[in-house]
UniProtKB/TrEMBL annotation:
Signal sequence region: none
Organism: Streptomyces flavofungini
Matches recorded under SUPFAM superfamilies: TRAP-like
Protein name per its UniProtKB record: AIM24 family protein
Length: 212
């Protein structure tokens, strides 16, 4: 299995000994040794995955990198966080997914009727299995713990990913800016209940669900 490590906070180094990883298309910044690069159609899931992503607007263009040596990845100097999976599932915005072990399965899942964040719609990218994934965020990602006693509300524009035994729902007609008298139009909050982790970023992406 490939070894993921950070060099600084904005560059991912992946050491490979014949292994393969799937990475955001165009994110390779350097490599040594011998590497083979292959563009994967539809996020690496063939025709079915490509059609699903077009229908859901969950766009994810990835490449497979395989070889012997080290490959470095980065994306517009965004911050990188490593997530280890042990036979579990990670839900992540497609725009926040930089790289995964090739053995991890990626797909899309329906997450409910809600305000659609940029590039996501009502679906979210899933990463499942055992291995590592690298997430990118505007500023260092903040990891928030959700417990049964303390549910969490998140602005959709700041949401990056979540994992664990969490129930996700959406509340319309209210947003954080509404509390300050700055909201306008229809807006949403994401609510997480259960036991798990939620990753958020320090800035808000633009959304198509109103002023959030």
């Amino acid at each position: 299995m490939a070894t993921f490590r950070l060099q600084g906070s904005r560059v991912l180094a992946v050491d490979m000994t014949g292994d393969a990883v799937k990475a955001k298309n165009g994110s390779m910044v350097a490599y040594d040794g011998t590497m083979i690069f292959k563009k994967l159609t539809g996020g690496g899931e063939g025709i079915r995955g490509m059609v699903t992503r077009r229908l859901t607007n969950e766009q994810m263009t990835v490449m497979e990198v395989k070889g012997h040596g080290t490959c470095w990845f980065a994306d517009h100097a965004t911050e990188i966080s490593l997530v280890g999976l042990q036979s579990d599932k990670l839900y992540v915005e497609s725009s926040n997914l930089l790289c995964t072990d090739a053995g991890l399965r990626t797909g899309t899942t329906f997450t409910g009727l809600r305000g659609a964040t940029q590039g996501n719609g009502v679906f979210t990218t899933t990463v499942e299995g055992t291995g590592q994934a690298a997430l990118i965020s505007d500023g260092p990602a903040v990891i928030l713990r959700v417990t049964k006693q303390y549910p969490l509300h998140v602005d959709p524009g700041a949401y990056v990913a979540h994992q664990g035994n969490l129930k996700q729902s959406f509340q319309s007609g209210v947003t954080f800016r509404t509390f300050m008298g700055e909201g306008g139009g229809e807006a949403f909050q994401m609510r997480f209940e259960g036991d798990g982790l939620v990753y958020v970023q320090a800035s808000e992406r633009n959304t198509i669900a109103g002023d959030v």
